[in-house]
Design goal:
Chain A: One of its GO terms (molecular function) is translation initiation factor activity. The complex is a heterodimer of chains A (about 350) and B (about 300). By secondary structure, chain A is mainly β. Chain A is built from 3 helices and 28 strands. In chain B, strands 6-7-5-10 form a 4-stranded antiparallel β-sheet. A 3-stranded antiparallel β-sheet of chain B has the order 1-2-3. The relative contact order of chain B is 0.07. The chains are: A mainly beta (about 350), B alpha+beta (about 300).
Chain lengths: ~350, ~300
Amino acid sequence: MRPILLAGHERALTQIKYNPDGDLIFSVSKDQIICVWFSHNGERLGTYRGHQGAIWTIDVDPTSTILASGSADNTIRLWDIKTGKCLKTWDFPTAVKRVEFNEDGTKLLGVTEKRMGHLGTIVVLDVKIDVEAEQTDEKALTIVCDESKATVAGWSYLSKYIIAGHEDGSISQYDGKTGDLIYNFPIHELNQPITDLQWSQDRTYFITASKDKTAKLVSAKDLEVLKTYTADTPLNSATITPNKDFVILGGGQAAMDVTTTAARQGKFEARFYHKIFEDEIGRVRGHFGPLNTVAADPTGKGYASGGEDGYVRVHHFDKGYYDFMYEVERERQNKLAAAGNA
Amino acid sequence: MATQKKHDWADDEDLEETTTTTTTDLPPPQKINNKDGSTTIIEYRINDLGQKVKTTRRVRYIVRREVLNPRVAERKTWAKFGDSANDGPGPAMDTTTVGENIIFRPSVNWRREAKDEANDPNAQAMKDKLKDKKVKCRICNGEHFTARCPYKDTMAPIGEAGAADVAAGMGDEPSAAAAVGAAGPGKKGSYVPPALRAGAGAQGERMGGKYGERDDLATLRVTNVSEMAEEQELRDMFERFGRVTRVFLAKDRDTGLAKGFAFISYADRDDAVKACNKMDGFGFRHLILRVEFAKKAQ
């Protein structure tokens, strides 16, 4: 496969998101610009300017109409995807590290940083998916994380729970309506922050990536750890591929240590693991720095990775990827086919 | 592509002038349909220096139908905005480039395969050869580099006259020393071209040997390949018999179609023999493959 290199950013990438149809890629970096690209050929559709600080996070609503971004300038902004216009700005006391729309796009959660005497919080905002509509200033819900600040968070299926990953390596489950804490489990090593949390397509389970060099597949309902993927380097991001039972992990040694080692030893590769068998099945090289974010195309045709080197690399899988199957999987498929014919 | 467009962007901006010149003394653009389905477009224009320039382009039109989600199709018609507002249609050169091809084939034992490549025999041989070597000073025979020798300023290297010692000190094989000595005794520091250096013969032979080996022993020549064939397809077909180290499919430079022959190199000759027997006469894309061992180029 020939990756497409997107060089629209001047600083390290922080997050990449595909829209649900898989035709647009949104990328944000520390250089204060949001870029949107066509995934099939890497053509840039436009940029969204307005943030005054590093942008940490981005999310797109299910209808691909509006875009939410959270930045170190202590704001969450809403954008019109088509024109690049800023629709709404919410101000917060500290930086915003994560935003995510719920399944129907009516609610937006934001994770704010713990700093300057403010505790880390998870806020929920009511959003109208309409470019013309007036957005409300009121926060629908505020969850204060007084034990360990949340680094990532997301909405489970039916917006039933809010799941948060914490700096101390634990995950919490909050009620999606009231914000009450239901469970808190340490799943990663103590004080190894959780760096990413991405959902499966139906949002019944999710994958977490942590600096403790592992990624875990966790059920949203009871926070049971279903699978563990062990890597040899701190992880910054993990994603679940649709259609095929794989997960992609991205990481690499910390950016501050990069200059002291060779690229080969930096482990700046996207690692593919089999979702069920937990085996590593391959790696994709290319970045010159650690991978800060990986995102799988919701249509299952490819994935994109963003690195500390400022590049987004968009990969479209070729045949070998689709053909790969474990012997047991192949046997089962043959058996099912035989049963179907009989 | 540019069928109606008479002017290249590189033409003079003064439209009036160029139109007058092009209409008066330039032959009209020509379009010729080639046999292989491509089109040759010949255009004439006057450049900045007043010279007549003929541009010949060979273009191949490929119509590819794709079924798209209507929402996706609608978004493709959106106008660009922000920093990309002034970009033309299609990916802009400054933001989008295509990287080099990465071979990514998921595999259960990918780690072992990767290790095999890392330990290729040449690197291993070099390591073995250097295992017992020690750093030796030319001045005092101590275990340090000559440049670090404490006696460097006070003593001349031992065996200044005898080149053999010098060479031995450098950690070369004795034969090398002898050869250098023979080539020019007394001229210790003089340059010896790589071809004349001791051991060069052996080195060269090994290099040649390696390629010869590849071509002679484990490379198959496949002919009567369909012009629609892709390298990946061939690789898939031939990998069934063993590890394929190289697939070369000759392609036409202009049209991108296969020329009808390919070379497949195996890591192991036995695999190549197997593949040769099995694949000769194999039906692939409406043609019957002919597979034989490749002959040496000379």
